[in-house]
Design a protein that fits this description.
The protein contains 13 helices and no strands. With 270 residues, it is mostly helical. Among the domains are: 5-99, MazG-like (Helix Hairpins, Orthogonal Bundle), CATH 1.10.287; 222-269. 7% of the residues are buried.
Length: 270
């Protein structure tokens, strides 16, 4: 008989605690800290998003499990330090959801999603309490908002908010001019051999391309995810044509196979 959600979660908590036991636990799990697990949290979140994009329920169920494992593992590490437990995490989010949905759990009224968002933001502001006025309130708010976002999503959020506040080009020509300016600066930085400077200039170029996406109403994260999928589809065909061995092939041979892969995919989709 299938276990209840509560029973399954309790079993997961026990399994993770067992993995973290100093006597007989898993050496890898015992080495982990909150900081060391950050890449895994991000990876699992992105894999959940990928499963959603593909509409694959079996994959989504598995990836949600992997993401849930990260939540339970972080809570277990905190519990071992007598800081908090998973129950405290659940209590905190339960209280927040009830507090921020007075139109559901109390007698407030919200006629549409826009009203819900307005109420949510007002309650968040009240939760932060009275603070001394900031000389840069928008920057402060954006710093807090994007700190947990992937860099690409954070860049789009910053771009939108800054533009709404009036920090904006007059037309699309100004955006393209900025793209070319940043591209030239990246080329110069690469030629100089200054790795740190080149990385900064690459970031500037990517941020400007995010602004292009905003002007054109394009979702950069979805665009890049699609490019990744298309590249791997084409690359797998190139690999297959070479029986998995790319070594020793000239760039002209590889390019020819790449173009053939693109043509084959177009023909299949026609």
């Amino acid at each position: 008989m299938p276990s209840s959600s509560t029973d399954a979660l309790q079993e997961l908590i026990k399994v993770v605690a067992r993995l973290r036991e100093p006597d007989g636990g898993c050496p890898w799990d015992l080495e982990q800290t909150h900081a060391s697990l950050v890449p895994y949290v991000l990876e699992e979140a992105h894999e959940v998003a990928d499963a959603i994009r593909h509409g694959d329920d079996a994959h989504l169920k598995e990836e949600l499990g992997d993401l849930l494992l990260q939540v339970v593992l972080h809570a277990q590490i905190a519990k071992e330090g007598n800081r908090f437990a998973l129950s405290d995490v659940a209590d905190g989010i339960n209280a927040k959801l009830i507090r921020r949905h007075p139109h559901v759990f109390s007698d407030a009224v919200a006629s549409d999603s826009a009203a819900v968002k307005e109420t949510w933001e007002a309650i968040k502001a009240a939760e932060r309490g009275e603070q001394a006025p900031s000389a840069s309130p928008l920057s402060d708010a954006l710093t807090a908002k994007v700190r947990g976002m992937p860099a690409l999503a954070g860049a789009m959020t910053i771009s939108k908010k800054a533009a709404k506040a009036g920090f904006e080009w007059d037309d699309m020509a100004g955006v393209w001019a900025k793209v070319h300016e940043e591209l030239d600066e990246l080329k110069e930085a690469v030629i100089s051999g200054d790795q740190s400077h080149a990385q900064e200039e690459l970031g500037d170029l990517l941020f400007t391309l995010v602004n292009v996406a905003r002007w054109c109403g394009i979702a950069p994260e979805e665009g890049l995810a699609g490019t990744n999928r298309r590249f791997l589809d084409r690359f797998s065909r190139v690999e297959a044509a070479l029986h998995g061995n790319l070594q020793g092939q000239s760039i002209d041979e590889l390019e020819a196979l790449w173009q053939q892969a693109k043509a084959d995919i177009r023909a299949e989709q026609a």
